[in-house]
Structures are given as C-alpha cells and as structure tokens.
C-alpha cells in the first residue's frame, strides 16, 4: 500500500476557559506502519515549522501501559481498533483520502485543559479514596506469598488490575459513568485476602468520591466494555455492586 494523504479535523481549545472548535489540517505521506501518535507527531512538526501552535495531546509510554493517550477518534475512544490504546492504533486502520475526526475524551468530570488534553485527576481522587491496602510494616509482616490464593481468584484479580485508568469507559458511556473503572479497582482487592481488611470502607468511599466528581449513573449499556482497551469485564461492575450492598448492610 502506498503512503496516505489525510484530512484531520481536530478539536483546538486554547485553555480550559476558552471555547474550542474543530480545525481542519492536511497531512501527507503517512505510512500505514506509523502509529496514530506518530502521525500526530508529523502534523505537529509541520505546525511547528510554520510557526503555529502544535496540537497538545497526552502521551507517555506509547506502549499501552500508562493510559495517557486519550483521543476520541472518529467517534470512538482510542479509535476504530479493538483492545488497543491510541498509541497502539496503527495507521493501517485508515486509507488514503480519509477524513479523521479527533476530539478529547468528553465528560463533565474530565474538563478539557488544552486541545486534546483533559484533566483526569478525578480518577486519582477516587483511587486515593480507597484504592489501596494498608500493610503492617513493623517487621513481623507476613510474606504475601505465604497466603494461598485460589487460581481463579488470582486470575480474576489480575485481570481487574490490568485497568490502566485511561478513561475510555467514561468517554464512551452516554452517561459518562465511571463504573467500569471503579468496578475494576474494587474487584482487584475484593478478590484477594489482602483486600478484605478495608473492604467495607473501600467500596463506600470510592463510590462516594465517584459521585462527588460528577460521573453519571450506569444504565447497563455495556459500551464501556466494548471500548475498554484492556478488556475489563462488566462482571467487575456486578462485583462492585455486590460489595457495595454488603457494605451497606454491615453499615
Ligand atoms: S476500565 Fe478500561 S476503559 Fe476504563 S479506565 Fe480502565 S482500562 Fe480504561
Ligand atoms: S501513551 Fe501510554 S497507553 Fe498510550
């Protein structure tokens, strides 16, 4: 396949106070082997050479681990491929002459800071509210490996722990619900003995913080699961709801 010429329609917004708008750009000679972010680098180099402001976007690891690359591409979080983040999306998913729309992840709890960069510190505050365990480090601490854990529980906890906090679930959900993210974080601990000590407060505090941050309610559309780059299952939401109910009964 020969290289591609593309039209990009990109959300430009100076800062959190300004009104944004879509702006058209052309990029040419884009290889199908490039990642989506490399294509964005080509555009930014072009803009810098012309003395224009490059498009601000978040990125860090560029290998699907950090969860920073939050782009809404052609109406989908992380673009048209499945099970990938934007940095893992390849230009071979597009064809010569395509127009690609690129927007930030949109949610009340993720305010736009500039262009495609959103503030996801609401996720951090949910984590701080309960996404941890306390360990006695007095010197008599039990070796974690001395605790036998059923293989199924260990596997499911590990699956939940693969959530990278990217926010695609929120951006995809018509209610901007964060239930898949919080479900993953609660499940990660609920399945392990180390998570039992603080289980009651954890689920209550994390759900409380989620509501305070302005995330919407879950209406079981399942869109989050489809767009999650890490394949986090809706089962985690069901587990969180069970944990929440148990915590409410316990008081
Ligand atoms: S649940 Fe999936 S989509 Fe949501 S933050 Fe975690 S990895 Fe991203
Ligand atoms: S840049 Fe780290 S997940 Fe995409």
From TrEMBL:
Residues 154-184 form the 4Fe-4S ferredoxin-type domain. The keyword Repeat does not apply. The keyword Disulfide bond does not apply. Its cofactor is [3Fe-4S] cluster; [2Fe-2S] cluster; [4Fe-4S] cluster. Signal peptide: none annotated. Keywords: 2Fe-2S, 4Fe-4S, Iron, Iron-sulfur, Metal-binding, Oxidoreductase. Belongs to the succinate dehydrogenase/fumarate reductase iron-sulfur protein family. This is Succinate dehydrogenase/fumarate reductase iron-sulfur subunit. It comes from Euzebyella saccharophila.
